Amino acid sequence: MTFTTRRALLGAAPALMAAPALAQNQGQARLVVVGGGFGGASAARFARMTYPWLDVTLIEPKTRFVTCPYGNLVLAGTRRLEQISHGYDGLRARGVNVVHDWVAGIDPAARSLRLRGGATVAYDRLILSPGIALRWDALPGYDEAASEIFPHAWVPGEGAQTTLLRRQIEALPEGGVVGLAIPDNPFRCPPGPYERISMIAAHLKRHNPRAKILAFDAKNAFSKQGLFQDAWGELYPGMIEWVPASQDGRITRVDPGAREFESEFGTRHKVDVGNVIPPQSAARIAIEAGLANAGGWVPVDPLTFEARQATGIHVIGDANVAPPMPKSGYVANSTAKQAVASVAALLRGEAPPAAPVYFNTCYSHVGEDYGISVVGVFRPNPDGSGFVETPQSGGVSPRGNHPEQRRLEALYADAWYASITRDMFG
């Protein structure tokens, strides 16, 4: 397999890069966090605020993090990339040592990282939050070159992909066809493709109302399906056609040159704009470190998030395998705090906090002043082998005619985004 990283991993300042090792505070326990997104930034800030005796280093290659949440609103033209981009000065102000470089390798036995710039970083405990990789070998015809014609726009930080897809949608011929290829589970942000369909439709309704969206899905059901389809019928009648796997919706080959999708039974579909969301795995660094299973995701202890394959490395966020919890920003933020609390306890020779509870709330924008949501509460299961949803803890927005609730949920979504990014970045 070949992979591309989501956040890729991480650059020391020139003076530090020249040194053979990255100096850390003498006498303090060393927590290193790799990856500066929803999981990693949350972990680093929470660690400094809650356990000031920890020496915390965050390693992240990019100087600004572009969020996956609200990226679809950029496609609708209601947000700009700079509005969903966040820097790390707030973490530095909290005392986090932020290093911008890529991680070239992990040595679990020596408890150290090697950075691409030449420095080494020692740790007592490592929290790894590298995100996803796109599996370029999983869909015939789709590789990095093809993504310049059929953009994926699915990796935060790759603003060029989002901008490319946005420009293609703006340039869509009158009455043209936008095609989406949606992968099978698991993948990051289960409702994400369907919010994307909605936001593209919102733009087309204003600027190209005769256009059509064909959404080819490798699944027969999806998150918040009834709510999305109700909204599509109400807001975008006749514009969106969702094609499930049972109706030959599984795309098995793409031809960017001919602008065609080919489905499982050989049917070829011509599109003017193609958005291909390929199958995914944990980021390359997790796989190269030997942490992942055969499916490409990292099994973890549900209490501490320590990788099953390596002592001292805790894997949070999208890279781990933790069903039934979704791969969402809220879950990454929630579980990051339990991972940090576990790290602190273990470094003190104590037992990790027992009976943790993990939360997920996922808002989706479907149209102007129209939001929907799903909620879940999760715990480690009794035998410690995995996770379980707490009975009667979850739920979704009610179906039916509830315009005021839809308007409020759109506002709640905006408030959630402001709150969680402040919790991450300060």
UniProtKB/TrEMBL annotation:
Key words of the record: FAD, Flavoprotein, Oxidoreductase, Signal
Domain called FAD/NAD(P)-binding: residue spans: 30-142
EC number: 1.8.2.3
Record bears the keyword Flavoprotein: yes
Claim: Hydrolase is one of the keywords in the record: no
Signal peptide, first to last residue: 1-23
All copies of domain Flavocytochrome c sulphide dehydrogenase flavin-binding, residue ranges: 355-425
An example molecular function term from Gene Ontology annotations: sulfide dehydrogenase activity
Protein name: Sulfide dehydrogenase [flavocytochrome c] flavoprotein subunit
Organism ancestry: Bacteria, Pseudomonadati, Pseudomonadota, Alphaproteobacteria, Acetobacterales
